[in-house]
Amino acid sequence: MKKIIFILFTVSGALGLIYQVLWARLFVLVFGNTTHSTTAIISIFMAGLAIGSVVSGKISDKNKPQTNLRYWAVAEILIGFFSIISLVSFSQVTQIYSGNIVTKLFTTAVLVFPSTFFMGTTMPFLIKTFSKKQNLAKQTSLLYFLNTLGAFLGALISAYFLIELFGIFVTVIIAGGANIILGLLGLSINFDLTDKSHLQAKKDTKKIHVSRQTLIFVLFGFFLSGAISFSYEIIWTRMLVASMGTYIYAFALILGIILAGIALGSIIAPKLISASKNRAILFAFIQGLIGIGALSSLLILSFDSNLSNIYRLIIVLTPTAILMGTTFPIVTSLFEEQENTGFSVGLSYGVNTAGSIVGPLVSGFVLIGLIGTSSTLMFLAILNFLVAIFIYLQASKRITIFPTVFATAILVTLAAPKYFPNTLIENSIKKKILYYQSQGWDWQYLEDESASVLAFAGPGSDPNNKGLIIDGIQTTTLTIQTKLLAHLPLLVHPNPDNMLIVAFGMGTTYRSALTHNITVDAVELVPSVPKTFTMFYNDGEAVLANPKGNIIINDGRNYIRMTNKKYDTIVIDPPPPINAAGTTVLYSKEFYKDAKEILNPNGILVAWFWYGAPTDDFQMLFSAMKEVFSEILIAVSPDGRGVFLLGSENPINLDKQQVAARYQGEVYEDLNEWNSNPYQLEQLMELFVGDENTIDRFVDGAQPLTDYLPRTEYFFLRHRLNPQPNIDPAWVHPIPLEFDQAHGITRQ
């Protein structure tokens, strides 16, 4: 029976992680995909866990083991119930979310807090069910291992299988139902918890005498440990994206390996505890090693490696994660001689979880923007060393080689940036910077709470020698596609007065749109991106000073949902590839509906789709747009690398005479700025190749991409069980003769 409970608790850990993934995704739809909003969501989640663990710890001390077991089972049922309720309620409170940020946070807390509160209760209830003072550390290690192992499985199962197969809604229903069944099974289990075979462990003959002051120091150190560890996860993710890519599976692997390391650490903790004469000093020693492990990960990421991505991930993340996993069992072992062990366990877990709220707030919003990712990691490592030194001195009362070693590590860490300024940077970014320096190119490297930004500009007029790299991934160069994003809708709209651009990028679309003498708003998620604009254009300062232009730092989805302003034209240009994590929010059917609401009559939305994914992905993407906009005009990029879809509620009048009247002067010069052979009117008209009938023929009844079925991001099974080649640019053919005749197009 005991083994059955342990299996159920492992499943509980998997379900908890699945909820976290799903909630984060759902609430991004209404908060926006900013670092501030994501941190707010995580903070609410963690706050529930922290409060639940403290409350349940106090309650568990008053209960008999069988009662604690039943409380745990009831908590699992309530987790499932409230999780399903939160999902159902989410779709009913959309209007509330159009309010201010305080209203959003309050509503989110109401929806999520009950589930997370009861999640926080499960660990203390079960620890108190199976442990006595003499085996508290052992049982804590085992249960923490099982729950974290479950979280590891949940991270991979949700990313690789559940969301792709069932979508967001059904996955929450499945997880909630599984939680309820799990709890009912727990309630049905009835065995004698007073049986010595279940409870008695070999007594440790070593008595633990820990002063109250030392315990306070350790708890504060454990709070800092939670803050530092969670911050490391954020930093590692940002640094690894440069080599792993921006697909959802890269993020899932990073999280999975960290959780696997924590699980391994928790299971080896009892051996460390048993071998230690002073557990407070053991905790201090582990903190110092975590700092060394974090610095080692930075060094590894700073140099070339022939290892595959998965092996590199394991080497970078696992050692430090294993050390992190030992800390909770070590801290709880210090309370074995306390009377209220349940409260002590709950308090320890709550304190650490509270730290995991504070860490991302300070690191993400303050440190990374001020001193950069690498320096933030080094600062956190120094904090690890300081925690190690102070707790050691408090527990030992004497200075030995131990604090001397970590004090030396602090000095070395402080000196490293001065003597090795270009070494401690993620290798792929470092190599690019060194190349630009060797070629004498201009470059600028900036970091903020959202991303790292590397802009480069080579000499001469070659547009390919200027570009933007975000989090190590090149997103764009100067290209005619971004000019066409502005010109195409403004040339065909009957009387455009303004434009909204989602994703500022290098600012080409923004600059081109202003040549039409209209009002232009551009929304950019990453604050550092617009700061690089003047690197790419000689007239950059004048463009930024244009009173008709306005750059807004916000999430594009969130801005469109919240603004009261109406637009004649909207441009959507998410960073490639179309399968990248988070892109669904700018390609989904629901997003197009939101965008349609802020379009004026005869308004036009244009979206750019870069080829480089299988045909069925584009069928879903185009189907989503077609279901919202009944009228569509298709234009291909001159180099054949992608396609523009112009959508409207009313027929889009591709009037050749109107286009000719507008395609002159500053507009003509802008579009042909980088062309040795300027595009004449006929060549420009030839870019238009079809309409909504062409889309219907291509889509062939495919399901649209939606917020709740984000299958372009989650494609693992589909691409392996039914692999397809990338879309053929010839999908637009044959171009109907009547289309060309209706618009006066003569093709060469």
CATH architecture label name of the largest domain: 3-Layer(aba) Sandwich
> Radius of gyration, Cα only, in angstroms?
29 Å
Mean pLDDT: 89
Number of helices: 26
Taking the alpha carbons of the first and last residues, their distance comes to 78 Å
Helix content, binned percent: 55-70%
Strand content is 5-15%
Q: Spell out the CATH superfamily of the largest domain.
A: Vaccinia Virus protein VP39
How many E strands? Answer: 12
CATH topology of the largest domain: Rossmann fold
Oligomeric grouping of the chains: single chain
Whole-number total of structural domains: 4
Shape: globular
Structural class: alpha/beta
Residue runs with pLDDT of under 50 for 5 or more positions: 197-205
In what order do the strands lie side by side in the largest sheet? 7-6-5-8-9-11-10-12
CATH class wording of the largest domain:
Alpha Beta
The biggest sheet amounts to: 8 strands, mixed
Protein model, in words:
- The strands form 2 sheets. This protein has an 8-stranded mixed β-sheet with strand order 7-6-5-8-9-11-10-12, sandwiched between helices. A 4-stranded antiparallel β-sheet has the order 1-2-3-4.
- The chain has 748 residues and is α/β, with parallel strands linked by helices.
- It is globular.
